[in-house]
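Try this one yourself first.
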């Protein structure tokens, strides 16, 4: 049984800035990656370190999987590739952890089919997520997006209140940078691991395996897309999957931007960006 792509969306948060999400797929694997927006000058060639780590990671993960490696081994190999490339290409070593390129990730791979259907293995970091829809069952939510986004909204609301500012565009505001950098400094320690030039992260990725029936549907997405459910409350997980299947991902992108344009300052829906990059893959 193959993973068949039905639809895809790769929507930049700002049309004049690099899209810092990435996605990739083949017959037996699919992934979405979301580079963490830089909190200062980048260290890598090109316009965005975040776009680099997301695009590089997606390419290298699929390359290792096509070589026949297991999901965890492919992840470890891609992280090692990122370390080597980062050390070879960066302008200088980072002075602090927040300067290190990093990304959220949701990866699904298909193990050999058994008598009861295909075994899907999910590995993830950060805020990318997945929804799995099967007949006669509620949608299964994979990843930590919903919990993480709720905490992020509270943090944006608190910081905005302390600084007496609207929260959106906070990533570029000097008033917010001290705390944002302090939070980013905690990556790759404790339980805050992300895809980055750090091979040890492979052992800390979230993991779940699920047996999926032929014909099941799967939605992989960055948090910018999942905000329709996690942040804005337009859908629950079942409703978002139904809308994606019935009306397509681009209609959901239009809906997403309409909500954000109507709350440009982030006062109704607290967040650090007016609009985030939004990426989604719909598969059968």
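Now uncover the answer:
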């Amino acid at each position: 049984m193959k993973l068949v792509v039905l639809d895809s969306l790769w929507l930049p948060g700002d049309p004049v800035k690099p899209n810092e999400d990435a996605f990739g797929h083949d017959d037996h694997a699919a992934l979405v990656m979301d580079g963490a927006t830089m909190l200062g000058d980048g260290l890598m060639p090109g316009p965005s370190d975040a776009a680099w780590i997301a695009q590089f990671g997606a390419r290298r993960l699929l390359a290792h999987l096509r070589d026949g490696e297991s999901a965890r081994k492919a992840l470890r190999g891609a992280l090692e590739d990122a370390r080597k490339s980062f050390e070879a290409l960066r302008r200088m070593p980072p002075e602090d952890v927040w300067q290190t390129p990093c990304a959220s990730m949701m990866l699904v791979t298909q193990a050999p089919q058994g008598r009861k259907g295909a075994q899907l293995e999910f590995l993830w970091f950060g805020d990318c997520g997945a929804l799995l829809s099967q007949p006669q069952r509620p949608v299964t939510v994979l990843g930590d997006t919903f919990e993480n986004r709720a905490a992020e909204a509270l943090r944006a609301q608190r910081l905005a209140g302390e600084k007496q500012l609207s929260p959106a565009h906070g990533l570029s505001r000097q008033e917010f940078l001290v705390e944002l950098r302090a939070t980013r400094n905690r990556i790759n320690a404790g339980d805050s691991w992300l895809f980055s030039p750090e091979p040890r992260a492979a052992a800390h990725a979230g993991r779940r395996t699920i047996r999926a029936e032929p014909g099941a549907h799967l939605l992989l997405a960055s948090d910018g897309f999942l905000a329709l459910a996690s942040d804005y409350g337009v859908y629950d997980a079942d409703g978002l999957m139904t809308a994606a299947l019935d009306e397509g991902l681009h209609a959901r992108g239009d809906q997403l931007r309409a909500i954000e344009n109507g709350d440009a300052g982030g006062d109704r829906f607290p967040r650090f960006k007016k609009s985030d990059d939004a990426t989604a893959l719909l598969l059968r």
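Discussion: The CA atoms of residues 78 and 263 lie 38 Å apart. The first strand starts at residue 5 and ends at 11.
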